[in-house]
Amino acid sequence: MPRFATLDIGTNTVLLLVAEPAGARFRPVLERAEITRLGKGVDKTGRLAEERIEATVSTVARFAAEARALGAAQIACVATSASRDAANGQAFLQRLQTEAGLSAEIISGELEAQLTYLSAERELGGEGPL
Questions:
Q1: Separation of alpha carbons 77 and 60, rounded Å
Q2: What share of residues in the chain are helix, strand, coil (percent, to 5)?
Q3: pTM of the entire structure?
Q4: Which of 15, 36, 105, 125 is buried most deeply by CB count within 10 Å?
Q5: Would residue 57 count as lying in a domain?
Q6: Strand 25-35 with 13-22, pairing
């Protein structure tokens, strides 16, 4: 059965989800989170700090290897606010490609909010006030 993975590179945390199809939904096989603090200092300097880039690239490479070992046929990788706001956000993506073998996309704040909402709605069953 094919498996798929997502990597969410946030301002403070890298999230990994490996899942497999289960009917009309997906069943999580592995969920991981690691705090890397990629965005530490971006508000003051406008740049991602080298030490935070190194920690994040290392984590992403390790998570991608885990996903591949579990049979993930595809890994979707997105970066959010810190990468979007930093002057060196695109250079960070190039490092991910070179050092972790992953193509990542910096998503808009609007798309980030939509995905967060959809995730919460699925998790809560859509029975809330929204």
A1: 9
A2: 45, 30, 25
A3: 0.89
A4: 36
A5: yes
A6: antiparallel
Residue type, 11: T
> Would you state the pLDDT for residue 130?
52
Q: Write down the pLDDT at residue 64.
A: 97
Asked if the structure places residue 46 within a domain, the reply is yes
Mean pLDDT per block of 10 residues along the chain (130 residues) reads 94 97 92 98 97 98 97 95 96 96 92 84 65
Residue 96 sits in which domain range?
Answer: 3-124
Residue 129 lies in a domain: no
Q: Strands 3-9 and 13-22: what pairing?
A: antiparallel
Question: Residue 75 falls within a domain, yes or no?
Answer: yes
C-alpha torsion sign, points 117, 119, 122, 125 = negative
β-bridge partners, 48: none
Place of tokens 């199809």: 21
Nearest to 57 by CA among 104, 19, 111: 104
